[in-house]
Amino acid sequence: MRHMTSPRALTTAALAAALTIVPAASWAQPATTGSVAQAARTAAGTAVPGQTAATAKPGTLPRGFRGIELGMSKEEVDALLSADELFEYRGPEDVTLLPSPNQSLIEAAGLSFVKRAFFQFYEGKLWVIIVAMNPAKMDHYSIFTTLSQKYGPPALLDPRESRWEDESTRVALERPLTLRYLDLEVYQKLREGSAARESVEELERREFLGGL
Fold it and tell me: What DSSP string runs through the chain?
């Protein structure tokens, strides 16, 4: 029987940080030493830090976690979370509307290897999965080595994250111990929309200044 869920561990600021996508400009710092870099060489060949790996990935990247896959509806995710004993999911109580247009979030406490998980939706479809692991039961090296053996060397390797990508999916292992699954098509759409909004704001700013 499931025990009662404790109060949410993350504050609003922490949740915003968890959902932040690292900008492309920050990818340049390489990690050339340490256990992760060594694991990349021994478990999956040599990954070039901070650059796209040329080696083909031996397996197709996963689109989700424990059967919950990117592109699913909120109803599908709700049903799977409710049936999964690894999560303490309370239904509508764990659903939040985000300030961004057409976006919502399911936050669920985890048990055993999972500390907490976030499922972010855009226009009713799941596009980001964030799984914070329990450091008392899991470690960064084990996850990194497993991903490298299954999917080849990461496309990006730096001190903050290791990243695997194909045409539609990004899987990132972020420090200290978080897995992120991201739908690249939706990500690109949101980036383009953000750039368009910034361009309009800049034009309006120039027009305002010109009228002074």
Answer: -PPPPPPPS--HHHHHHHTPPPPGGGGG----SSHHHHHHHHHHS---TTS---SPPSSPPPSEETTEETT-BHHHHHHHHHH-TTEE--GGGGEEE-SSTTEEEEEEEE-TTEEEEEEEEETTEEEEEEEEE-TTT--HHHHHHHHHHHH-S-SEE-SSEEEEE-SSEEEEEETTTEEEEEEHHHHHHHHHHHHHHHHHHHHHHHHHHHT-
CA distances from 14 to 44, 89, 116, 194 (A): 33, 20, 13, 22
Q: pTM of the predicted model, to two decimals? A: 0.69
Domain edges within the chain: 28-185
Residue with tokens 């561990």: 9
Strands 64-65 and 125-133: unpaired
Beta bridge partners of 120: 105, 128
Mean pLDDT by 10 residues, the chain (212 residues): 42 39 33 43 42 49 96 96 95 88 92 96 95 96 96 94 95 96 93 72 63 58
